[in-house]
Design goal:
The chain is an alpha+beta fold. The protein has one domain. It contains 6 helices and 6 strands. A hairpin with a 2-residue loop joins strand 4 (about 90-100) and strand 5 (about 100-115). The longest helix has 15 residues, at about 1-15.
Length: about 130
């Protein structure tokens, strides 16, 4: 019984490790936390479950008066479909910290829309 438990713990530890073939440029950019300007294509770029550039560019969206003046249709054209939407709120996942397959922490940009489709506010929820 103890051998099975040790084997399962060892196997889970091995499976939770990241691959050595991870894109080093992306890792370097993320680890340095360099802010970059908004780019529609980079905003949508995803590797597995993670968005590659959103952590570095969400502030360019959050504090951009031009984006805040868009309508819902224009915003969806600029940012793409949200990860989740509910009752006048659009949720764009910025980053997610996981322990194996369980989500531990999520950073999300929330856009609240008015009844006329204009943006009321944009905030980040952690």
């Amino acid at each position: 019984m103890n051998r099975i438990l040790i084997l399962l713990l060892l196997l889970s530890a091995i499976l939770s490790c990241k691959s050595d073939q991870e894109d080093k440029a992306t890792s370097k950019l993320a680890s340095e936390n360099i802010e970059i300007p908004f780019d529609k294509d980079k905003w949508a770029l995803k590797e597995g479950k993670d968005y590659v550039y959103r952590e570095q560019m969400y502030e360019a969206v959050l504090y951009n008066d031009t984006i805040r003046s868009l309508t819902e249709v224009q915003l969806l054209e600029a940012l793409g479909d949200p990860d989740y939407h509910e009752e006048g709120h659009l949720y764009y996942r910025i980053s997610e910290t996981r322990l194996m397959n369980w989500t531990v922490k999520t950073k999300t940009m929330v856009v609240k829309l008015n009844q006329d489709g204009s943006i009321e506010w944009i905030k980040v929820h952690e």
